Amino acid sequence: MTYLFIINPVAGKHNSEATISIIKEKMKKHGLKHEIKITSRVGEAKQLAKDAISSHIDTIVAVGGDGTIHEVLNGMVNSNKNLGIIPAGTGNDLARTLGLPLDIEESLDKIIEGKIKKIDIGCFNEEYFINFASVGLDALIASEANKIKKLIASKYAYILSVILSLTRFKSPKLKIRIDDLYMEKDIMLVAICNGAYYGGGMKIAPKADLQDGCFDICIVNKMNKLKLLWLFPSIFKGNHIKYKDVEMFKGRKVEIDYEGYIEVNTDGEIKNARPVCLEIMNKKIRTIGI
């Protein structure tokens, strides 16, 4: 087994040197062949993973946050390579859903152990996502959080961005189709979830299953912003689903239309689109270290 570690040096608390030292020591101890690549720009992790699929590499390990995993996934889809994950970001939401240890050495031990789980992936505009996609308030929050995280590397960056975003958010009226179910409504957000967590530990889709072949879709309908702030803490434990303003659905395909372009957040990456079509793929990704 040969491993490629793709490291985002600005993820999390930016302690990439310590991470590299741990990886080298662990690989040497087990006599395992490996390579380490450090990214220097956005999009490089995707290209490194893409280059690796035609090489002798067996396992591609994303070392960083959910954004790093997103890039690596998009570089290696359609290959027979294994995806390894060492959670080193601020949120590490996919790792939470997978039950991965947040300790680097423990994560490495799990990857070396080699247990494989095949998990679902979603598709949006010829790109893939592994954890979630969303529109509405969440996309604005994610945009703000990306700025704030440069100054505050913690889950509180997301909470602060929520408060800032609420001051200027206006609920859009969306046309939404989930498989054969159609609706039109004013929303605060629509989260299309493969995993259970996002936003640094918020359990947005508590019943999500990465292997069931379906999205769990959470729709938060338009409400008073003060009411949303009151509801917000309940999301961390998944208790928000008991409120009447929150609706949960399951489906394989979600289509969203709006009168103009709308921001879409996929695994923390923001893009503008119209219309929006998100679909669970028939293919799965081989995830190692579960």
Describe what is shown at a glance.
With 290 residues, the chain is an alpha+beta fold.
The gross shape turns out to be globular
Taking pLDDT < 50 over at least 5 consecutive residues as the criterion, the unreliable ranges are: none
Rg from alpha-carbon coordinates: 19 Å
Q: How much strand?
A: 25-35%
The helicity comes to 25-40%
Number of strands: 15
Structural class by secondary-structure content? alpha+beta
Query: Span between N and C termini?
Result: 17 Å
Entry keywords:
290 residues, alpha+beta, 15-stranded mixed sheet, 15 strands
Task: Report on the architecture of this protein.
The protein is α+β, with helices and mostly antiparallel strands and 290 residues long. Helices cover 28% and strands 35% of the residues. It has eight helices and 15 strands. It has helices at 16-30, 44-52, 66-76, 93-98, 104-113, 137-148, 156-166, 225-231, and strands spanning 2-7, 33-38, 59-64, 82-87, 116-124, 127-129, 132-136, 173-178, 181-193, 215-221, 246-251, 253-257, 262-266, 269-273, 276-288. Strand 13 and strand 14 (269-273) form a beta hairpin. Helix 1 runs parallel beside helix 5. It is globular, with a radius of gyration of 19 Å.
